[in-house]
Specification:
Elements lengths: L1 H19 L4 E3 L1 H11 L1 H21 L5 E10 L4 E3 L11 E4 L2 E14 L1 H69 L4 H36 L3 E3 L25 H21 L5 E11 L9 E10 L7 H67 L5 H35 L10
Parallel strand pairs: 1-6
Antiparallel strand pairs: 2-5, 3-4, 5-7, 7-8
């Protein structure tokens, strides 16, 4: 009796706490994944990190953009300079070379015409930006996989709760039957105690599952970005997950980790190519306008210059050779990382596909066992009412049915989770949402 009161109290407390929370909107799995991809905080953080890397493309193109600058100077000197033609027996006014207070101004425009940085750095930056974007996509896939796992686990818990509620209803009915039989003198107290024990066990299971559900809902909210709840079991599950691809198509090559590693390798290869052309000259055209408050011998305050600058790197203390060797080592590292990433992606896909096949086989057996346990429980119930089965037979049949229904609910959730894992291993968990 004490166990029964404790289970009932726990069930009431958990139910009251769940009812006090704000209502959550039930949505299908597809919508939950779309919300997480659109507004999930983890996805936003990954996208922001990729955006930082993509700025490097814009910075690389600045090598071709002009440079425009303006300078101004005021100069007060204690040694002004003048040219007096009379000193040489010539006639003419005195010319001020440097006045006591002079003002100078320069407006300069420099336009690169040829630069190895402008030729190669944009392509290198684009490859690394592509790698960062694919890395952000992979982070999004992992977030969506966590959403799917949490969502489907919640659906599995709901299925277990439904089985536990059915077990509770059956146990309560057994209690009422036992009480009636005891009153009629056709049963003993042990029948009632067994029914009460089953009721307490069912309510304890309900309390435990309810607590588990309430702990998973905030996690789903954190991943999705708003308070939501899954639909009842069997609704909104694997509709967005698709089917596994054939191994001959090498679906792991479409994963974002592999595509990011490919872009990373391409960027490293372009860096080595850039190092091989660092001997190219840098050519720039310069237009410069000048202003001076001193007219001097030119007889004017303004002038301009058109300049063509050519810079040929002959030897820079071996810096570019050291950079080339470093970039070659980075290329070898990127190629090794690509081979490792491909191997891991293939192994992950094979493992996910094998787990899906195993989960489907387990589900078929669990559903068959549940149907058998249901028929057995019905037959034992009829036999008990006819007086040819004991309360112990009823208890065993009820427990077997509950365990079979729980196993089937868990197996259904596991199959959907395995489907989500296969979709993530093929890099299509997000792309399937748009279909």
């Amino acid at each position: 009796m004490h166990l029964r009161r404790l289970a009932r109290a726990s069930f009431v407390l958990v139910s009251t706490a769940a009812a006090a929370q704000a209502p959550r909107k039930p949505i299908p799995l597809r919508e939950a994944l779309q919300l997480a991809a659109r507004q999930g905080p983890d996805v936003a953080a990954a996208r922001a990190q990729a955006a930082i890397t993509r700025v490097g493309v814009e910075r690389a193109y600045t090598a071709w953009k002009p440079d425009l600058s303006a300078t101004g100077t005021f100069d007060h000197t204690s040694a002004p300079q003048q040219f007096d033609p009379g000193v040489f027996g010539l006639s003419g006014p005195k010319l001020t070379i440097v006045a006591p207070n002079s003002r100078y101004g320069t407006l300069q425009l420099s336009q690169p015409l040829l630069t190895p940085q402008g030729l190669f750095l944009p392509g290198i930056a684009s490859s690394f930006a592509e790698a960062a974007d694919r890395g952000a996509d992979e982070a999004r896939e992992q977030v969506l996989l966590n959403v799917a796992r949490t969502y489907l686990t919640l659906q599995g818990v709901d299925g277990l709760l439904a089985a536990a509620h059915d077990a509770e209803k059956v146990a309560v009915r057994r209690e009422e039957d036992a009480k009636a039989q005891i009153s009629a003198g056709t049963a003993v107290e042990i029948n009632l105690l067994r029914a009460q024990s089953d009721t307490a066990a069912a309510r304890a299971q309900i309390a435990s599952l309810t607590g588990q559900r309430e702990s998973l809902l905030p996690l789903l909210e954190a991943l999705v970005g708003e308070p939501v709840a899954p639909l009842p079991p069997g609704q909104g599950g694997d509709a967005a997950l698709g089917r596994p691809a054939d191994e001959g198509t090498q679906p792991w090559e479409r994963t974002f980790t592999v595509r990011s590693a490919i872009a990373q390798t391409a960027g490293a290869n372009k860096s080595v190519t850039y190092d091989n052309f660092l001997w190219l000259p840098t050519v720039a055209g310069v237009a410069k306008g000048n202003y001076s408050s001193n007219t001097g011998f030119a007889g004017t305050n303004t002038s301009y210059d058109l300049i063509l600058n050519v810079s040929v790197p002959l030897y820079d203390r071996g810096v570019r050779y050291a950079q080339k060797h470093e970039d070659q080592a980075k290329l070898q590292q990127a190629m090794a990382n690509l081979a490792s990433t491909r191997a891991r992606a293939k192994a992950s896909w094979q493992g996910a596909r094998a787990n899906l096949l195993a989960a489907q086989a387990v589900l078929e057996q669990a559903e068959a066992q549940s149907r058998v346990a249901k028929r057995a429980q019905e037959q034992i119930d009829v036999s008990a009412r006819a007086g040819v089965a004991t309360s112990l037979d009823l208890q065993v049949a009820d427990q077997n049915l509950f365990q079979a229904q729980s196993a089937a609910a868990q197996a259904r959730a596991n199959v959907d989770i395995r489907r989500a894992e296969v979709a993530a291993a093929e890099g299509r968990l997000y792309s399937d949402l748009s279909k």
